[in-house]
Design a protein that fits this description.
Helix content: over 70%
Order of helices and strands: HHHHHHH
Number of helices: 7
Radius of gyration: 25 Å
Number of strands: 0
Distance between the termini: 95 Å
Largest sheet: none
Amino acid sequence: MTVMRKKSTFSPGRAVLALILVALLSIAVSAQPDVEQKRAEGKAAFDEAIKLRQENTFRSYRSALEKFELSVRLYREIGDKGNAGSSLLGVGLIQNLLFEYDSALASYQQALAIFREIGHKELEARALNNIGRLYDEIGEKQKALDYHFQAVPLRLITGDKYGEANSLNSI
C-alpha cells in the first residue's frame, strides 16, 4: 500500500506573512493598555484642572490651563473626541477667565465643531452657550443672542431643563 503525502503548503512567503500577522496582533494587544493609560492620565489632568480652577487665583488658573491643555492632547492622541471636546471647553473657560478672549473663542469653536461632528447635542448646546457668554462679555450683544438662540432648541431636544433655563436666562 502506497501512502500519498499531501504536498506541503508551507513556503517562505507564507512564513513571512504569518510573522507579520503575529507582530501586528502583538502590537494591537500591547497598544490597548497604552490607550487606557492615556485615558486615565487625561482624566486625571482634567480632574486636577477642575480643582485648580476652583481656587480662583491667577496662578491656579494658569496651572488649570496647563492641565486642561494636557488633557486635550492626551485625549486627542487616543482619538477620544468627546473628552477632547470637553477638555477644550475647560481650556476656553480658563482663557476666558484670564481675559484671553480670542483664544477662548477659538477653543470653544473647536469644541463646538467636535460636538457637532460626533452628534453630542447637550455639549454642543453648552459650547454655544459659552460662546454666547463670551460675546456678551466683550459687548457683542447680537452675536451673543445668536449663539444663545442656537442653544435653546438643542436644550429642548436633550431634555436638559437646567441648560434650557440657563440658555433662556442668557437671552
